[in-house]
Amino acid sequence: MTKADIVDILAEGTGLTKIETAAVVDGMIATISYALKKGEPVDLRGFGRFQTVDRAPRMGRNPKTGIEVPIPARRMPVFRVSKHFREFVNTPFEADEQLIVSEE
Which region, left, alpha or beta, applies to residue 39 given φ > 0 means left and ψ of -120 to 50 means alpha? Predict the structure, then answer.
């Protein structure tokens, strides 16, 4: 599934235009990205948590030449799945299931 597919499904479920829905999806991605860049975690209850973790510097190896190369320290974005979402994904798929867009 691509971002365009998500926009199509959400536009159909909400009644918004595809342009409006694409702006919302892009805004959500930008907001999550900016929060992670600032070092803030993003919790989406029932879905999961986006956060960053610090990776220590280490020595890696070039697989082609075998030469060791230093890999600098860096922050990596990670996603931790919520228990509710993990359980949902592991239930059998019903062919007649439909996306229900919450109006909360």
Answer: left
CA atoms within 13 A on the CB side of 32: 17
Instruction: Indicate whether 81 and 50 sit together in one domain.
Output: yes
CA 5 to chain centre: 15
**How far is residue 36's CA from residue 30's CA, in Å, rounded to a whole number?**
10
**Which pLDDT score, from 0 to 100, does residue 86 have?**
93
Helix 3-14 to helix 18-37 angle, to the nearest 10 degrees? 120
Q: What is the pTM of this model?
A: 0.78
Query: Do residue 86 and residue 70 come from a single domain?
Result: yes
**For residue 80, what are the domain limits?**
41-93
Q: How many domains does the chain have?
A: 2
Mean pLDDT, 10 residues at a time, the chain of 104 residues: 94 93 96 96 96 96 95 97 92 72 58
